[in-house]
Amino acid sequence: MLETLQTWSESFSNWAWGYHLLLLLIGGGIFLLIYSRFQPFLFIMHGIDVLRGKYNEEDSDGDISPFAALASAIAGTVGMGNIAGVAVAITMGGPGAIFWMWVAAVVGMATEFFGGTLALMYRGKDSLGNVQGGTMYMITEGLGKKWRPLAVFFAAAGMIGL
Fold first, then answer.
1. What confidence tier does 149 reach under pLDDT thresholds 50, 70, 90?
2. Do the Cβ atoms of 66 and 145 come closer than 8 Å?
């Protein structure tokens, strides 16, 4: 039973992490960057102003400041895997790897911009009325209640590290 599960997991992982995923991520990021007319770069000063507290409102929704939200997002995004991944990429790929990491970062910025926009648009509230967010809320609030099994699958996959 365990060997069957391991075999299935390995074959799924080999299928999921192929070149088609790279093309989807880079191609999707380029599409979103062009579709948004380079919005992530045009409003970078506005984003810095928001982080500095220029637009803070005491009675706004949410429990944390914009800076605290950024800090927690960075903490959730940049971990030991990303730090070690950069070191391994430079070691294995040489200086050319730095260029491709920059390309991926610029394109990934558009993807992250749209992800953050969707997270703000489709926030939900829990039973106590507190604002909650995340991919599960984006799926159920944005796509509708019939997509709830996908949100549950996403949460379960995140728990076991798929």
1. very high
2. no
